[in-house]
UniProtKB/TrEMBL annotation, chain A:
Protein's name in the database: ABC transporter permease
Localization of this protein: Cell membrane
BP-aspect Gene Ontology terms: lipoprotein localization to outer membrane
Residue span(s) of domain MacB-like periplasmic core: 19-239
Pfam families reported for this sequence: FtsX, MacB_PCD
Organism for this UniProt entry: Marinomonas ushuaiensis DSM 15871
Main location (coarse class): membrane
UniProt GO cellular component terms: plasma membrane protein complex
From TrEMBL, chain B:
Name of protein: Peptide ABC transporter ATP-binding protein
Keywords of the record: ATP-binding, Nucleotide-binding, Transport
GO cellular component: transmembrane transporter complex
GO molecular function, one term: ATP hydrolysis activity
Keyword Mitochondrion part of the UniProt annotation: no
Pfam families associated with the record: ABC_tran
Protein family according to the UniProt entry: Belongs to the ABC transporter superfamily. Macrolide exporter (TC 3.A.1.122) family.
């Protein structure tokens, strides 16, 4: 064992109570760091899961296309263009094959979507119709899970709508309602399911229909309007989007692009977390620095003896830096272990329905990071005391 | 023939406290020959410690020249002086001699182990031999804080010898001891001086200590009196 290590270990074990308190103080700061890291990461995971479980991870749409000019006449200031121009994917079977062979893609759902009105007596409400294959009704959003009345069965040709829309029009299961599409087609359909997902725009404005029932309404006998994809790992959506866009010439949109506010929210949480982490580290540095500074003062005469016998300034400085590193390492490992235990305990507290009270992720406590930062911080904290110790003048110290 | 170990020429030391200047050493000339045990006598406050600190390279003189073992030492850096001190000089002080949280053995070994980086088997063996020489081999694993005053000074003497110095400075080594312990310590220094030919410069204001030495150097009013 290097002699400097022996000397610094002897110093920190000479006053056990003081060292214990110091290590506990460091450990406490580490617990705060771990707790806040696990909480923020857990919150991000929870929010991301909540979002990605309800939407497509990648959406494939026909590429944007300039609308056809209806009358080419320079007398018009604004030339009328066809807004009824259909954008559709005709070769969608082929696109499905490409998507199926792309690694990381788990589910592919062809969709015929369009805008329509629900008319009941005098009342009219706009609705965005999603025509999906009946066996894929749960592929993008798990509708079955959110059904509060009726069922998610689409094969019977009925319409599934959100609870808010149902209330507004006074619709119950079995009530027939007139659906008028943007193409002017009309159909009388029964309500077969009512869902409540908890997202206002879904519960108020979206309805599900089988793709077969949707085709005549939107005048799409063969083509589809988009493809919704689910991935094994939602975080890979941007890279997989680029791959699919290149392979299919369709416009591929990763979910992150349509949910910028989620990114903003998790970024803001991250910054709050960094702030608290910074304070926890600062507390570690200050407590170690002040304790060691006090120790250099108490041991002035001893340092003077060492210097008088010709022991170098560097040796004295290293002894004090190593003391800081020992205290930092002990506190870091103790705090990381205690912080993990705390997070596990907190994560196991559940609501009556079995879900976790705190969205804390015990495995995401930043343990490696906090241990490394604490040890580096402790070494830096010891620099000032080490300088003070190595500057002790032997003559003054011995004559005291 | 006996060889010149230390040569000091016209050493002047002035302390400055703000406006006030005190000239403590007013031109000291001194030659120490190898193998002698020399007493440095003088009243309290006469400058004995100041002179020992300067000769022992712990303090720089205001002016004057110093040669040790035929090396000119004026103008060396703090680091070089420290390393020179470690390799060639030994020290015994009146108070604060040992590191209380280390054993007697570790205290003796310290000035050798720190520069070596490790407390090697050789250093440990040499430290044990020295503890045996000062009659404390049975106390080698006692913490310094558990030793009596006389035992502490004997450990300090063992420590001063660990790097085989030619010259050992002892600043009132018995000043803090009872009469019996003081006698024991002086007898020990005498022994080491006779057996190993180690040179000692011992400051004291005690006549009985001085009587034990080969030579007496008196410091009066900042100068060496003849
Ligand atoms: N750092 C210092 N600053 C000012 N005066 C000092 C300092 N060190 C010693 N002195 C003075 O120098 C004189 C000699 O001190 P010292 O060498 O300790 O004497 P001795 O060891 O013979 O008792 C004393 O008057 C003391 O007050
Ligand atoms: Mg003195």
């Amino acid at each position: 064992m290097p002699f400097s290590l022996l000397v610094s270990w002897r110093y920190i074990t000479a006053n056990r109570l003081q060292t214990l308190l110091l290590v506990l103080g460091v450990a406490l700061s580490v617990v705060v760091f771990v707790f806040i890291t696990a909480l923020i990461n857990g919150l991000n995971i929870y929010l991301t899961q909540e979002t990605t479980s309800k939407i497509a991870h990648v959406e494939l749409d026909p590429p944007s296309r300039v609308a056809r000019v209806l009358v080419d006449d320079s007398r018009f200031v604004a030339q009328p263009v066809s807004t009824l121009q259909r954008k559709q994917i005709r070769n969608w079977q082929q696109v499905i094959e490409i998507a199926e062979s792309t690694p990381g893609v788990s589910v592919i759902s062809p969709i015929v979507e369009g805008n329509a009105f629900l008319v009941r007596g005098e009342a009219t409400q706009p609705i965005a119709i999603q025509g999906v294959e009946p066996n894929k009704v749960d592929a993008i959003t798990n509708i079955s899970r959110y059904i509060i009345e009726g069922s998610a069965e689409l094969t019977t040709g009925g319409l599934i709508i959100g609870a808010d829309l149902a209330t507004e029009l006074g619709l119950l299961i079995g009530t027939p309602v007139l659906l008028r599409s943007e193409r002017g087609a009309e159909r009388l359909l029964p309500i077969t399911g009512i869902f409540r997902i908890g997202l206002a725009n879904l519960d108020q404005r979206v309805g599900f229909l089988s793709i077969r029932a949707a085709r005549p309404l939107f005048d799409l006998p063969d083509g589809i309007t988009s493809l919704g994809l689910k991935l094994d790992n939602p975080a890979e959506a941007p890279t997989i989007s680029i791959m699919l866009q290149n392979a299919t010439q369709l416009k591929a949109t990763p979910w992150q692009e349509v949910n910028k506010s989620l990114q903003d929210a998790t970024d803001a949480q991250g910054r709050t977390g960094n702030f608290i982490q910074g304070f926890a580290l600062l507390a570690i540095v200050i407590s170690i620095s002040s304790a060691l500074l006090l120790s250099t003062y108490r041991r002035r005469a001893e340092i003077g003896i060492m210097r008088a016998t010709g022991i170098s300034r560097q040796f004295v400085a290293i002894v004090f830096i190593l003391q800081g590193v020992f205290i930092g390492a002990l506190g870091a490992f103790l705090g990381a272990a205690a912080g993990y235990q705390l997070c596990v305990q907190l994560a196991s507290i559940t609501r009556p329905d079995g879900s976790s009270m705190l969205p804390i992720a015990p495995n995401e406590g930043g343990y490696m990071l906090v241990i490394i930062l604490t040890i580096i911080g402790a070494a830096l904290a010891a620099l000032l005391p080490a300088r003070a110790a190595s500057a002790v003048d032997p003559v003054e110290a011995i004559q005291q | 023939m006996s060889q010149t170990l230390l040569l000091a020429k016209d050493i002047i030391k002035t302390f400055r406290n703000g406006e006030q200047e005190t000239c403590v050493l007013k031109g000291i000339d001194l030659t120490l020959t190898q193998g002698k045990m020399i007493a440095l006598q003088g009243a309290s406050g006469s400058g004995k410690s100041t002179l020992l600190n300067i000769l022992g390279l712990l303090m720089r003189p205001t002016s004057g020249e110093l040669r040790l073992l035929d090396h000119a030492l004026t103008g060396l850096s703090d680091g070089s002086l420290s390393s020179y001190r470690n390799r060639h000089l030994g020290f015994v002080f009146q108070y604060h001699n040992l590191l209380p949280d280390f054993t007697a053995l570790e205290n003796v070994a310290f000035p050798a182990a720190a520069p070596a980086g490790r407390l090697t088997g050789d250093i440990r063996k040499r430290a044990l031999e020295l503890l045996d020489k000062v009659g404390l081999s049975d106390r080698s694993h006692f913490l310094a804080s558990q030793l009596s005053g006389g035992q502490k000074q004997r450990v300090a003497i063992a420590r001063s010898l660990i790097n085989n110095p030619k010259l050992v400075f002892a600043d009132e080594p018995t000043g803090n001891l009872d009469q019996d312990s003081a006698k024991q310590v002086m007898a020990l220094l005498r022994d080491i001086n006779r057996n190993d030919n180690t040179t000692f410069l011992i400051s004291t204001h005690d006549n009985s200590v001085a009587a034990n030495c080969d030579e007496i150097v008196r410091i009066i009013d900042g100068k060496i009196a003849n």
